[in-house]
Amino acid sequence: MMRKSKGRQKVEMVKMPNESNLQVTFSKRRSGLFKKASELCTLCGAEVAIVVFSPGKKVFSFGHPCVESVVDRFLTRNPPPTSGTMRLIEAHRNTGVRDLNMQLTQVLNQLEVEKKRGEELINMRKASQRLCWWQAPIEELNQPQLEQFKNSLEELKKNVAKQAEKLLIQSSAPPQYFPRSSTPGNGGIHLPFDLKNTGFNPNMPSMIPPPPPNMMPPPPPNMMPAPPHHQGYNLGRNMTPPHQGYNPEFGRGLY
């Protein structure tokens, strides 16, 4: 069976007909070519100049110590200068290039480590999605999973409706207020019963409000004084009823 991917397969050395594949391959191969040239300069101290034209007619170059000096030496066929000053300059330049190559190597190694870490995270995410299948996109669920997901959503909708109705009833119920009291133990509320016992507490004051201070209840009907003509007196026009109050002369025969 033929493998679909081209990893670790021998690629036929012919020009690629696909334009996008050609551009991607050129970019990857160019980076690899420049990397190998840099390693050659670092390990062997070689002077290298590479000039590459892309399929889109763009120019890319790499050179050590620089492209111009190497190209000039190649065109004029002049030997490199051997003076002490030039040697010091070349040594300093090689030291800088060596440090840059070391930094590049460290960055590339770190990049490889991060790539592996990213692949591990992707694998862990896929594994967690298989366990928590309801978090996956709907397009990736099969028929049984979709039916189970639908039933779960309907049950959740019912529970939310019940909870919303319960909160609505609690918020619409009128609050019950009780007069305040300084009696400790009942939260300052004046209740007509004892919280500690089940029976009525007679020591609690009445909740019926007292009458206004200037209003007194009328006396019973049998205590009302009768009119004068009901007591057997027949008063004339110029006659006054007998005195019914206290007479200080009573007992002295003067009444």
Summarize the structure in words:
With 255 residues, this protein is mostly helical. Helix content is 45%, strand content 5%. It is built from four helices and two strands. The protein has a two-stranded antiparallel ribbon. About 2% of the residues have low confidence.
List keywords for this structure.
single chain; 255 residues; mainly alpha; two-stranded antiparallel ribbon; 4 helices; 45% helix; elongated
**Spatial strand order of the main sheet:** 1-2
Report the end-to-end length measured between terminal Cα atoms.
150 Å
Sheet having the most strands:
2 strands, antiparallel
Oligomer: single chain
**Count of helices?**
4
The overall pLDDT average reads 73
Strand content: under 5%
Structural category is mainly alpha
Order of helices and strands: HEEHHH
* Helix content bin: 40-55%
Shape: elongated
Q: Count all strands and give the number.
A: 2
Uncertain segments are: 229-233
Radius of gyration, taken over Cα atoms and rounded to an integer in Å: 56 Å
Mind sketching the topology for me?
Elements: H1 19-44, E1 48-53, E2 59-64, H2 67-76, H3 84-131, H4 143-172
Antiparallel strand pairs: 1-2
Summary?
The protein is mainly alpha-helical.
